[in-house]
Design brief:
By secondary structure, the protein is mostly helical. The protein has one domain: MFS general substrate transporter like domains (Growth Hormone, Chain: A, Up-down Bundle). The protein is built from 15 helices and no strands. α3 crosses α9, α4 packs antiparallel against α7 and α6 packs antiparallel against α7. The longest helix is centred in the first third of the chain and has 31 residues. It is globular.
Length: 420
């Protein structure tokens, strides 16, 4: 499974209903396959980031690994959102999952053969990103088809939990694999991890939806833009998301450089700390939502994330760096949970896939731009300076709150996750 955003449904669930979707065999099978696939994706992320540090010492090239993974958002996410409403989603997902299998397997074989240079690594990272972006809107849309309607909200929350479990375990496993056998095997294991999802999709006896073949992709995209122009709430969440994503991208993009003294295992463990922090943050969000507004939560979490971004460039002791990444993960999930709730509720169902594709464009596009920007700054001025400037950018981005508030009485926070 590619890195992706899991969008939460509205409405807090009763504690005794949180695990109810796993009682349904269809959802349980997909959930288990997805967790395995998420784990493989995180293993590949560790392998790619660390492998680039072995191929070159340039912070810019290391930052471009994350850029290559997210730049396809600019190219295909809007058509992907339109396609998710126009074709049979099961067949589209089979195609995108197979694409990612071949890309990951080819990169693994070439790496083991010693035929990969920095630009080939970026190319295959880009190809994986194309598959991930084409996959995302359709993947979000099938959840109602695999679970009972009254358990939909709980199912989305469980998807979030599954991603965070993989986020905690995958980097650590990836660090062990890279240290013991090399990055090539992390790529091959990621390729293998997709087969559970592919098997589920292949055997799924879903009644195909009727494709809207009379509509053109360009017309559907244009309709989405017209809707956004007349929807102030949509504009607000897009502006706020962009202001955050550019500044926030530096920490994860430059992490392979930060932790070079600690080796591949240290890199994987630091990503695990970030994932555990996100899991802890998701657990306390519903309680915080009872005390603070959406804008208050975003502002507080952004300040905390900016502080941790700055601290990551100053801390040298590994144990303290682990604490920094844990705290940053908790703040990260708090911010994105708020954005994701608004993204899920800002449009009617007939526009939702296209609106979400625009949200993904701003979020992941901002991450791509920021990764390249902060990599270039680090190459010129150094990693601590780049992290300090990005922390300042995060603080300046808070100025958008005054004119673009997200707080609404009907919004409720549910745990959510995002790809890096």
């Amino acid at each position: 499974m590619a890195d992706h955003i899991t969008i939460p449904a509205v409405g807090l669930q009763r504690p005794d209903s949180a695990w109810a979707p796993l009682r349904e065999p269809l959802f349980r099978s997909l959930w288990m396959a997805a967790v395995i696939s998420y784990t493989g994706t995180w293993m590949q992320n560790v392998g790619a980031g660390w492998f680039m540090t072995q191929l070159t010492t340039s912070p810019l090239m290391v930052g471009l690994v994350q850029t290559a993974a997210t730049i396809p958002v600019f190219l295909v996410v809007l058509p992907a959102g339109a396609l998710a409403d126009m074709v049979d989603r099961r067949r589209l997902l089979l195609l995108t999952q197979s694409w990612m299998v071949f890309a990951a397997a080819a990169l693994g074989i070439l790496t083991l053969a010693g035929a990969v240079n920095p630009w080939i690594l970026l190319l295959f990272t880009f190809l994986m990103g194309v598959g991930a972006v084409m996959n995302d809107p359709a993947w979000q849309a099938i959840t109602p088809d695999v679970v009972s309607p009254h358990r939909h909200a709980s199912a989305v929350a469980l998807n979030s939990a599954g991603f965070n479990v993989a986020r905690a375990a995958g980097p650590a496993l990836g660090g062990i694999v890279v240290a013991a056998a090399g990055s090539g095997w992390s790529f091959l294991l990621n390729a293998a991890s997709f087969f559970g999802v592919i098997l589920f999709l292949y055997t799924w006896k879903r009644v195909p939806s009727v494709p809207q073949s009379s509509r053109r992709i360009s017309s559907a995209i244009a309709e989405g833009f017209r809707y956004v122009q007349g929807a102030p709430q949509v504009k607000s969440v897009l502006i706020r998301t962009g202001a955050f994503s550019i500044g926030a991208s530096s920490l994860l993009a430059l992490l392979p450089v930060i932790c070079q003294p600690h080796g591949a295992k240290g890199y994987g463990f630091l990503l695990t700390c970030f994932g555990l922090g996100a899991l802890a943050g998701a657990a306390v969000l519903p309680r915080l939502r009872l005390q603070y507004s959406v804008d208050g939560l975003v502002a507080g979490a952004t300040i905390l994330f900016a502080m941790m971004t700055f601290a990551a460039g100053q801390v040298r002791v590994f144990e303290w760096l682990c604490l920094v990444l844990f705290t940053a993960g908790a703040a990260w999930i708090g911010i994105l949970a708020c954005f994701n709730v608004v993204a899920q509720t800002m449009c009617p169902s007939w526009m939702r896939a296209r609106a979400l594709s625009m949200y993904l464009l701003v979020l992941q596009g901002g991450m791509a731009i920021g990764s390249a920007l902060w990599g270039a700054v680090a190459a010129r001025q150094g990693v601590p300076e780049a992290l300090a400037w990005s922390a300042l950018a995060l603080m300046l981005g808070l100025s958008t709150i005054r004119r673009h508030r997200l707080t609404a009485a009907e919004l409720e926070i549910v745990p959510a996750v995002v790809r890096d």
